[in-house]
Amino acid sequence: MEQAIKVTGLRKVFGKHTAIEDISFDVKPGEIFGLLGPSGSGKTTTIKILTGELGQSAGEVSVLDTNAGSFGTADFKSRIGILSDNSSLYERLTVYDNLKLFCKLYDAPLERIDVMLDEVNLKEARSKVVSKLSKGMKQRVLLAKALIHQPELVFLDEPTSALDPGNAAHIQRGLQKLNEAGTTIFITTHDMEEATELCDRVAFLNNGKIQELGSPDALRYKYSTHAFHVETFSSEWLVIENKAENADKIRDLIASGQVKAIHSDNPTLGQIFLKVTGKELV
Ligand SMILES: Nc1ncnc2c1ncn2[C@@H]1O[C@H](COP(=O)(O)OP(=O)(O)OP(=O)(O)O)[C@@H](O)[C@H]1O
């Protein structure tokens, strides 16, 4: 398989409102791909089209070498996992019984339940009724559900947005491990640090259009001024351009013992997003 996801000229119109306007991108097998955008930019709509929950108005979509017309088949559904705002649990059943139902649905062995509960840090909650769980705990059960059948590709719509920092970090490590084991991950997030840490490549979605696409490192380099920020022991910050004629200046500063640290001037993904779209991603 050359591409896990291939999207060409995708467009989605709701009545008079164009939610997605001619977007194209590929996701490679084994990649963690992040779709980043402010509220209403079209992230959830994109996930819903890629998982067969919504039809597109125009364009071509292929996921795991399957065309949109076959997204409803049991075979396709068994190959993907989904965590979206439509994912739900049986509120009156326990965590364990919820996951047991999904194991049966996907023909997954019951041993997967404890493996997944460990992954999402919920072993102690296995006998709790879902209606008694906090929002963040429910989110983690939903994540366990999305991964219970060991799909090749998972779609995660803001998986850590309801979590406290400790559990968000735990889930991020779990996603990295899952990816190292070969799972392709398509994730949407508002969290730029999470995107920088997790994603091989990110696309900036704004008003239904992709405005930038690349690896976090490549984007940070592209938008860098390429200057050095030199911090001295007298708490001064000097900005020195990365030019041959400045080599002696930097050498002299280091030789004089004044240099505490030298930093590159690569902006954060959040700063780049603001520059490209004019919007803060909060
Ligand atoms: N079923 C629908 N009918 C009409 N308009 C819709 C529908 N679903 C989404 N939209 C509109 O499409 C645009 C994109 O919505 P979408 O939910 O994809 O954004 P998002 O980037 O996921 O936002 P958020 O981060 O708030 O979840 C919004 O303007 C939204 O109001």
UniProtKB/TrEMBL annotation:
GO terms for molecular function: ATP binding. PROSITE patterns: ABC_TRANSPORTER_1 (PS00211), ABC_TRANSPORTER_2 (PS50893). It comes from the Bacteria. Residues 5-232 form the ABC transporter domain. The keyword Nucleotide-binding applies. InterPro entries: AAA+_ATPase, ABC_transporter-like_ATP-bd, ABC_transporter-like_CS, ABC_transporter_ATP-binding, P-loop_NTPase. Keywords: ATP-binding, Nucleotide-binding, Transport. The keyword Lipid metabolism does not apply. This is ABC transporter ATP-binding protein. It comes from Gracilibacillus xinjiangensis.
